[in-house]
Every structure is written in structure tokens, then in C-alpha cells.
Request: fold
Amino acid sequence: MLAVDGSEGSSRAATVAFEVAEMTKSKLFIVHVIPTPIVRQIALMSESDPEEILIKYKVKGEKLLEGVRKASTKYKIETEVILDRGSPSDRIIYLSKEKKVDLVVIGARGATGGGRTGLGSSAERVTFGADCPVLVVK
Reply:
């Protein structure tokens, strides 16, 4: 399973996930989670309709997933894209268990990682919460 958020880190993670899936002849689930806690916060702070903001996130998420899926066609792998919503780390952990994946590949720092050092919060939560190994890509 590959978790993507449009960040540079998830782009690097995608390349690694494609290569691992190709070498192991595995199906790759490409997952993007719309961060509904952030959507609610933006709506509250901007006095906007949460549904309108959610639609914008959904459109961006679909474009992101299609771009990653398209990039995967250079490899001999089967893929399935999943657009979900909720807390990204919680949903990635849940989906990894539901789909019975053998490995989760995630970028060390995501879209909100900024200039911090170390792991991003989602990568850390997934690493400790998943039942399977997690490959964190710097």
C-alpha cells in the first residue's frame, strides 16, 4: 500500500513502492485520504460551507490519485486507487488491515511536514499503528 498526499516525500515514496511492487509481483493500493479534521477547521475559520471545501479536496485527491496511477504504468504492476476521508493516519492503518497488505510505503514527511526534522506525524502514527511493516521513505 502506498499513501500519497501530493508532497515531495510521497512522490519519492511512490517510486520506491512501484519498484517494490514490481519486484515482488504485488498489487499496489494507492491511497489518498482527505483530511476531514482540516476541512472542518478551514470551514470554521473561513465561515465557508464544509461541503464546498470537501468537494475541492475530493477533486484534488482524484487528480492526485490519477497522476500517481498514471506514473505507475511505467512498471509492470496492478494498481487500485482508493480515495478515503478522515484522519489520514487512522484511515491508512485501517485500510492496511482491511486490505491485508504486506507493506505500507509512506513518505517521511507529508504535505504539512514543513522544515521539521524526523518523521511527520502521520508517518509516525502509521509506523506504530500498522500491523504490517512500514517503509518510510526520506
